[in-house]
Amino acid sequence: MLAYIVKRLLLMLPTLFGVLLVTFVVTQFVPGGPVEQYLAEARRVQGRGDVSAYRGGQGVDPKRIEQIKKLYGFDKPATERFWLMIKQYARFDLGQSFFQNKPVAKLIAEKLPVSVSLGLWTFFISYLIAVPLGVAKAVRAGSRFDFVSTLIVLVGYAIPGFVLGVALLVVFGGQLQWFPLRGLTSVNWDELSWPARIVDYLWHITLPVIAMVLGSFAVTTMLTKNSFLEEIRKQYVLTARAKGLSERRVLWKHVFRNALIPILTGFPAAIIGAFFTGSLLIETLFSLDGLGLLSYESIIRRDYPVVLGSLYVFTLIGLFTKLVSDLSYVWADPRVKFD
Fold it and tell me: I need a surface site. Which of 85, 115, 182, 332 has the fewest CB within 10 A?
């Protein structure tokens, strides 16, 4: 087991290096880089009209352009900048944001609570719905309930969370005005009492969580159902029934423990996925100031240190989560061997 863990940790290094290399190369060919963005913003501030960022340094003092390039580190060759970035990341130094004048690590730490909050609600509600529903579908396999619930689950899974979010905003936020259109808290949050703050927070988080949950619990529901059906058909279940045990005891004491192994081993990946996967569009749509919105704004503004730093953190977390998910198979089922 130790040799397997060491091998997986060593394999993370070329994977992480490859992800950063591909992303860095792509950013070099994207038009309208940080220098052009800065020049366009400076023109707008000075009131020189609507000048496209893609016109580069036209009409700007070349010495000023060289100063800006040096400020952002673009006076060095791309290969040198890449290796400097790799050395920084090896020390977990994510660099400085071009446009927000803050360390990237501090920006990520500031935005993380919003994404964690959204991810935790999505994770817990998804599993609280999916596991009981999957068990009920397995027990009533082939019935009308199984057919109707499968149809509803698949329809919900087929609707993208972003599209559902737009529909929820239009209906419940715009027409009915039951929920707020943006933000995680109200403007007068600091003036509210703690019970009022809890209500205000839940009022704001309802629509984003619904948009993320509806599609996320479908896979877990079908996995739970299929896992229970596979266990119910095994010999030990027939033996338990032949001994006179009640169906409830057979289901929850014998089948439940074995059927949940593939679900439990997916917990680490599901938690991380709830935090970072799919939240970009939802956070952007509902104007939630989290990691997804930070990544989106950084891409639009070509704030490369934030883009690459966020990608580095997400990839590193994803690789370690995948390792923990694989190891959890051994912890949940001693019969699994990686040898």
Answer: 182
Specify the range with the lowest mean pLDDT, choosing from 152-156, 195-199, 205-209, 263-267.
263-267
Do residue 53 and residue 151 come from a single domain? no
pTM of the model: 0.71
Residue 202 has pLDDT above 60, yes or no: yes
Task: Please check whether residue 162 is in contact with residue 281, taking contact to mean a CB–CB distance below 8 angstroms.
Answer: yes
Distance CA 81, CA 42 (A): 25
Model confidence over 42-72: pLDDT tens digits?
666 555 444 444 444 455 566 666 766 676 6
Query: Tokens 């596979």 correspond to what residue?
Result: 230
Query: DSSP per residue over 127-182, as a string?
Result: HHHHHHHHHHHHHTTTSHHHHHHHHHHHHHHHS-HHHHHHHHIIIIIIIS--S-SS
Q: Are 143 and 61 in a shared domain?
A: no
Q: In this structure, what are the phi and psi dihedrals at residue 181, rounded to the nearest 5 degrees?
A: -85, -20
Domain of 34, in residue numbers? 2-90
Q: Which of 302, 308, 296 is nearest to 39 (CA)?
A: 302
Asked whether residue 247 is assigned to any structural domain, the reply reads yes
Closest CA to 258 of 335, 337, 338, 149: 335
pLDDT in tens, 172-181: 888 888 888 8
Instruction: Quote the CA–CA distance of 128 and 126 in Å, as a whole number.
Output: 6
Last residue of a domain, one of 56, 90, 124: 90
- Comparing CA positions, the residue from 318, 307, 222 lying closest to residue 277 is 318
φ, ψ of residue 58 in degrees (nearest 5):
-60, 125
Locus of tokens 């938690």: 271
**CA distances from residue 106 to 102, 196, 249, 310, 316 in whole angstroms, order as listed:** 7, 29, 52, 11, 17
Domain count, the chain: 2
Does 37 map to a domain? yes
- Distance from C-alpha of 68 to C-alpha of 39, rounded to nearest angstrom: 9
H or E, element range at 299: helix 291-300
CATH code of 256's domain? 1.10.3720.10
